[in-house]
Amino acid sequence: MRTPVKPLVAALAVALAGCAIGPDYERPPVDLPEKLVASPAATAMAERWWTVFGDPALDALVDEAIASNRDLAAAAQRIEQSRAQFTVTRSDQLPAVGIQGSRSRDRSSERGSFPPPAESIESNTNRLVLRASWELDFWGKYRRATEAARADLAATEAGRDAIRASLVGEVTRGYFNLRALDESRAVALRTLEGRRKGLELQRNRFDAGVVAELELRQVESDVAGAEALVPQIERNLAAQESALALLAGRSPRAVFEARVARGPIVTPAAVEVPAGLPSDLLLRRPDLRQAEERLKAANARIGVARAAYFPSITLTGFYGGESQQLSDLFTGPARTWTLAAGLLQPVYGAGQIAAGVDLADARTREAALAYQQAIANAFRETRNAIVAQGTTREALRAQRERERVLTRGLELSRLRHDGGTVSLFEYLETERQLLLVRLEAIAAERERRDAVVDLYLALGG
User: Fold this and answer.
1) d(CA 449, CA 381)
2) Residue 300 has what pLDDT?
3) What separation in angstroms does the CA of 203 have from each of 214, 215, 410, 431?
């Protein structure tokens, strides 16, 4: 009996390797532009791209977030789950082997139709066997399932990378917003201090009868406006610090205290897309890799669903010993074994198998559409980021020039007001405009930095 078993198993193994039901994966066709719009003044994309801003405090904050952020840590645990699930799924391709042991004591009836001899009324049975079962993956059901599990694992890893890139982007933008709020508060406090000094002067003039009450009340209104602006900025500052502390994965106490270190203000160098950058470089983005791996998994599960149409072939058997005396369990006469094969062919399931195939097909089509949409969205983000490199730089330049001109205009307006040729209302209006322009210039600087962040993230982070 032992001789024909080995050739049979070998033949089955060869047959198993030859077929797998279901379509092999092919990347959906996508109409990509040949080259990305580029500027000849280009810099290389750094792996730790946030270091281009030259801010040690930002570098430390990003490193802290990468090390401690809870969402990123949860993504790492999802990878471990997917890796374990992949191992579980892959194990279905291999035989299941186990050791089964038992010991029992029986007593037969002395009053039965065929009573046993007196010495056999009570007996012991000892049994120890090596049991194995193996469902032959003749149609590739388990291979396709393993393929899907491997793609799920890769998608989870890409998802972790996408969360990391998004996290770094959020931390960097939040830090720049924090610095912008710091500057805005400083501008608001300087303006408030100047207006309070002006109010003191106007009160002296009013007491001396030089100015009317209307002018005094107007100055008081402007002081109150500046006083109202400061707490608004401070509220936004507190909210931004708390948000950054949470992104950094700090404890509830540290989030409540929300102390975020600041570094020196450094204007980043212009960052452009290198000339001639191929469009397929965007396919390395983690969100696109995740979408494609999900498509691969859905495609593989079509084969799993179609394999249900075909019979399941299972080999089972055991090998071991059985005896009344434990000391005889491993002797030749106590040897026992069996080898069996079983086949189960589905005949009728009320359309369950067909519905399962339709479900897998529909999920694959959905995943393909999601992948194509993700690619289109990636190019939208990249185009917007490339355009923003020039527009935000020009907007900042214009705002700085406007601030310079209005600063000079305020100086001239003050001189003319002191000389009596310009009314107080005209002077105050120029001062209001300058305050707004200064705040807008700070916002333009923040948008310029955010555009650099967006470009790095659009190209894969």
Assistant:
1) 16
2) 95
3) 12, 10, 21, 19
